[in-house]
Design goal:
- The structure is a homotetramer.
- Helices cover 22% and strands 35% of the residues of chain A.
- Chain A is an alpha+beta fold.
- The longest helix of chain A has 16 residues.
- Strand 2 of chain B pairs antiparallel with strand 2 of chain D, so a sheet runs across the interface.
């Protein structure tokens, strides 16, 4: 499959750690959001650009698998990969690496769809988004 | 001072507890928000009613004093008091009681102002809000 | 499959709503946590009881599918179902209903494993947990 | 008053913005936490070092004044200042600048106390902390 990808580094916040001393699992969805935005800023489809183009893309599916724990103070590397596809959907995969321990911490995925301003599902990819996809220099998986 | 007030009961969420095993201090601002909304629903100035009247009231000041810790599983009682005042401001005070230990857990306050849809400060209380204030049956502190 | 289940009602917090005016997707993981704890309190395996028995059960997998949006002020009903299984895992499914619109809002699942106090994976279900499972009055799916 | 200080830069997360399109006020307490940790890492009293020295320092008071709104995508600069004082307390002040608009966004303060592992208040500053304070090169306000 064709994709574009990006890497960012994240610090774990004290308030993101639960009473077991590890990052509360729900916070990974914030990390994924950081990854999407970072990728969008580089490739020209950031949240602001989506907003300016009146593209509303809520998440309809997400999945996370946790491989090893992350503690306060650990440094994380997040790889975010966006896949080219024909359907009117945005599909991302994520890999969270714990740079402090050298272990893979989690993998995940999210799927987004296009809705109009009344939040109704759009079955076709908006033209402005197709044009953006066609302008990218895709890698091959 | 004249006021109206309300009591609600809250359960502490696992995700609200930090690695010390106590409620992370920032979560009290969520409790205060629950208190304001609950008071608003009873007295006819809930978030939805504010929105319908195009009243936008961001918080401009908040203060919290922590008196005793709250652990996961503790039951909380929140007293929220709204004060009548002449200035174009909304002033609330809060008391959080830990029903499990019988101790006062925290006190706090918030101040909100009126802004227009461009988020610019409004110096006068909107008429619809004045009318609402005048319709209330105030208690005396 | 055999299961036990529980229903709870939830209010959406202002701070849980994002700039699209809908509940931010990551907050559903907090709802699921509320559901697990509520079920645990009824059936005798709450967070406190897990802690007292030195059972540590981090989440290793979660999945959420979003079906319809939830707005501030909407009332939610959460159905949480815990499945009996032989593996040393805890498997839950969740259904979030928007009581205000009458629509199914989301479905989800979580899987937890047993770890020791060094957070190392345990391959067998602890005896105290097996005994608890055997004491339950399971329903059949 | 004598102080040490530090500056960090922060990005606003999508999930930190509320339905008014501005950073939800409670998130500033997360920013302040980032500031304290950053200062601690530089001056040798990070969360990990506090933990290793068995110093537990919960927040007992916090105050925030909001001066101008912060939107998604805005860059923030946070100045965190730690004050030298005789009492067994940790006192910080914070200044959040919106680098995108050039405006001061918020000011705040936090006070922490020393507690023992049973979370009981300690009236005297632990010796190891006094030594750390004496080792610093303080500036004068």
């Amino acid at each position: 499959m064709k994709y574009i990808e990006n890497e960012i580094y994240l610090n774990v916040r004290f308030s993101e750690v639960d009473s077991l001393g590890i990052v509360w699992h729900g916070n990974y969805l914030k990390f994924f959001e950081d990854g999407r935005e970072s990728l969008g800023l580089i490739y020209g489809m950031s949240y602001q650009e989506l907003y300016d183009k009146r593209l509303v893309v809520p998440i309809v599916d997400t999945q996370i698998s946790f491989k090893s724990v992350v503690k306060f103070g650990d440094k994380l590397k997040l790889v975010t990969r966006f896949y080219k596809q024909k359907a009117a959907k945005l599909h991302y995969k994520y890999w969270v690496y714990n740079e402090t321990t050298g272990q893979l911490s989690a993998t995940g995925s999210t799927t987004q769809v296009f809705v109009n301003e009344e939040l109704e599902l759009q079955l076709f990819t908006p033209e402005v988004f197709e044009e953006w996809k066609n302008s990218l220099d895709w890698k091959e998986e």
